[in-house]
Amino acid sequence: MSWPVLKFDAYFQEDVPMSTEEHYRIRQVNIYYYLEDDSMSVIEPVVENSGIPQGKLIKRQRLAKNDQGDHYHWKDLNRGINITIYGKTFRIVECDRFTQEFLESQGIELNPPEKMALDPYTELRKQPLRKYVTPSDFDQLKQFLTFDKQVLRFYAIWDDTDSMFGECRNYIIHYYLMDDTVDIREVHERNDGRDPFPLLMNRQRMPKVLVENAKDFPQCVLEISDQEVLEWYTAKDFIVGKPLTILGRTFFIYDCDPFTRQYYKEKFGISDLPRVDVSKKEPPPIKQELPPYNGYGLVEDSAQNCFALVPKAPKKDVMKMLMNDNKVLRYLAALESPIPEDKDRRFVFSYFLATDMISIFEPPVRNSGIIGGKYLGKTKVVKPHSSVENPIYYGPSDFFIGAVIEVFGHRFIILDTDDYVLKYMESNASQYSPEALLSIQKHIQKRGAPTAELENKHIDVDPGVQELEALIDTIQKQLKDHPWKENMLEAFQTCDKEASGYVDKEMFFKICDSLNVPIDDSLIKELIRLCSHGEDRINYYNFVRAFSD
């Protein structure tokens, strides 16, 4: 008993990578389904001299439908569907009459039939080898003689700002009436940073519409002939105010020269060709926003990294620095702290008028358990309630008796000032508040005498040493009249840039030598020994006390 066989007409597409004449190939096949054992086979009709192995492509067998182990069944086959067999996709377009009747009898609704795809290379070979073109009656010689040296000039732009690093460039398009050719010249500006190529596109005829089969033609290598072009660009295609696509690049024509306007008026009756304004307004400048302050250094220094690739130091007030050079306001302060050990600690605040910077020095106290010395280097101190974006720094008007100064989370109370501060406040009373002036006035009345120098408040850094105090009293009694006592403290403070109260030994002896201090005297030698701090530093506050009246 013979079992019926279902037959389907199908095709698949095969890539041809190594051929310049065809990119793909259409191969027509017949798919047979054997109802006896649900097997299938694929057979390609043999074409003579095709050069392709044809015949039985897939021998009779059960074909896998998916990766789960299912096989194709006759219920899976229909017209107008794709089936994949061993990685190749077959398109079923038709079936024979028996197959159609069988599937309809089983209740399967068949899709409408499709046309069998044709191989483009096979159809191309069926065409005649030669094509005879009827000669045109257009007189090219007459055109050449009539329009020789007559050129239409158009001004256009190519706007490529939508792409990355794109820009808007100006071009001049020439249309030669004598042979309908076009060239495009780029308009160069001085220092535009581009190589001065004279032409963007050489003079040639420009295709406007290509034939359907010429879209895959390798135009970048071969010249386009009349057989691949249905329509060429002519003068009527160049209109001011309309875009024009040439070789994939869209130009916008915004103006033309007077000869072109006259030609369009006489030839095409177009008299209105106004210039189109293509100038773009500059966008508003982008407001520079500084990033949040990271807490390192001063705000002004950190902001310089946002203004230039190589940051520069912020500008300084040179006149202020020259007028206030070596002018320092000194204050005695106490630390406001709940810790009992911090109640007796004293600090010297030095405010430098030239730079508005503050330094803090803690005079060392023997057997206190606290290492004295520099507490804070020269820097600007921000007030606690000022914003990070607009910092407000402490100024001279913020320092007065009883004022609370907060330095990086530590609160200090001003207790006393030196005489220079009093003179400065007297000469610049307008800078200070009535509260500050009143506090100084009460402080002076409380002491009952002119304010002693601020240094005298701090030179007694070690009151427990009776030997130092006795020696100071002895020197004050024996050396009452010494002409160098007036400039001694000022000389030491000039060399002490950080207002620490210490100078190195080499600088100390130089100053004493310049002031003719008798350092060879036995009492002064003993005083220098007691004022020494370490091996190479001397506390000049205690040394100057011995010569103060």
Provide structural commentary.
It holds the Pfam family DM10_dom. InterPro entries: DM10_dom (IPR006602), EF-hand-dom_pair (IPR011992), EFHC1/EFHC2/EFHB (IPR040193). It comes from Pteropus vampyrus (Large flying fox). Keywords: Cell projection, Cilium, Cytoplasm, Cytoskeleton, Flagellum, Repeat. This protein has 14 helices and 23 strands. It is elongated and about 140 Å long. The protein folds into four domains: 5-125, PH-domain like (Roll); 140-268, PH-domain like (Roll); 326-448, PH-domain like, CATH 2.30.29.170; 463-546, Recoverin, domain 1 (Orthogonal Bundle). Helix 10 (466-478) runs antiparallel to helix 13 and helix 11 runs antiparallel to helix 12 (505-514). Mean pLDDT is 83; it is low at 449-464. The protein is an alpha+beta fold. A hairpin with a 3-residue loop joins strand 22 and strand 23. The strands form five sheets. The protein has a six-stranded antiparallel β-sheet with strand order 4-3-2-1-6-5. The chain has a six-stranded antiparallel β-sheet with strand order 10-9-8-7-14-13, covered by helices on one side. Strands 18-17-16-15-20-19 form a six-stranded antiparallel β-sheet. Helix content is 22%, strand content 26%.
